[in-house]
Amino acid sequence: MSHPHQDNGYGFNYDSHSFNYDMDNNTQGIHQVVLPHQVSGHSSFGVNSSSSASSSGTSHGAEVFVPMNLPRGKRNGSTVLFQVGAERNSLSIPLEECLQPGGSPRLKNPHEIMFPTLNRTQVPFLKLVIAWSGYDAVEYLINIGTNEAPITRADLARQIAYSFVGFFNLCNDGILPPRSLSWKVGGRDGYSFQQMHLSAFWNIEGNSWAASIRVLQQT
Fold this sequence. Notes:
The chain is of the alpha+beta class. It has one domain (21-218). 17% of the residues lie in helices and 20% in strands. It is built from 4 helices and 7 strands. Strands 1, 2, 3, 4, 5, 6 and 7 form a 7-stranded mixed β-sheet that branches. It is globular and about 45 Å long.
């Protein structure tokens, strides 16, 4: 399993008002702060002719889960869901929206405290494992805040989104080449970041977690 970030010394800065995404990005190997308008117009995220998933949620298409090659561990049953608050049957929210400074304005219960029973003095970070089908697995650290300023659902969604920005960059830069093309990321023939929808964040085992990603496919 490869580790895209070099600093495992937890080079993060999290307080009650803001999360230092410049430091977070540098630590995790994302070499620049990526804002929503930069993602949508950045060539490194690919332009799939069948993608163009609008962050407004008005795109017509079907969502399918991206298969992740994850081991069967001893799960603790914990799962965090991400939904669009105004949609009754919402199952996910666009990752691109989650990059916004205040989080997606459409996210359901954005200010809800995550992992309320966790002692953040002992466990300040969770490990997000991205085991995208056809690629080597990579890991990113998720800063869950402090006991005084714990992470919210919107904060968690934003960190997950930035982690996938890092994953897409690794793929597009050739650092993480695909072993198969079925779920290729980026380029004209691959899936674009704009197609990615975040559905859930769930425990694999111990401190390791995974994100359930749905891909919007045009019908």
